[in-house]
User: What shape does this take?
Amino acid sequence: MGILNITPDSFADGGRHFELEAAIERAKEMIKEGVDIIDVGGESTRPGSERISSEEERDRVIPVISALKEIGAVISVDTTRSEIAKLAIDAGASYVNDISGGLSDSKMAPLIASHPQVQYIAMHWRGESKQMQAQAIYKDVVSEVRQELETRTHELIKSGVSPEQIILDPGIGFAKTSAHNWELLRHIDRLQLLGYPILVGVSRKRFIGTPDAADRLPGSLAAALATLALGATVLRVHDVAETVQALRIWRSIAASHKTASHPP
Assistant: This one.
């Protein structure tokens, strides 16, 4: 999943694709690089960020999604608002990536339930960006995140969402300290036991360890490949070409090792 932020203030690439033409050109690049899904977001969710209006979010993302549909992209919309999700689905999005898992908008789950063709990514969430880090308090982060995600899936299913629609995201960097992030990444396999595909977003995040987000690519790739080995299904990334190359090499080595270990 390639990240396409239509924002002026996202932590890693704010402003780079803010104009419609720049966003479309980046989407075309990602398609050539081998992206599977393009995740279009119009509102920064970095820690401390301010919310924008629904009208501003709509005006940022819907024209881009409509344009990407015309070039044949598989599209995800990154939003917590059901009205934006509905417009995005109508414009051609087939994934809704909701960092609140439906907790921010009570109308989101019924919307997803009414569109069974849409995949819904529900992230572990403990509040809006301005106050979420105050909620980063856990006795056992893996167990608590797993339990909260399990509760969320039960509530989504009660609202009519099909289990086949659900993808889970542990919310790396959201209401988590660096220590919490590392512990979750080490135990992605425990979250996979919930029975849903797992999306992991580690790309260029602060816990990787260098001050400048532009310098975090090597660590991002290492973390991404390690989570795949533990059972993650979807990688949400800024650097599509580099991730595709790393995946190709990793899969080639893993396949050759399996063949050598299990001769005919």
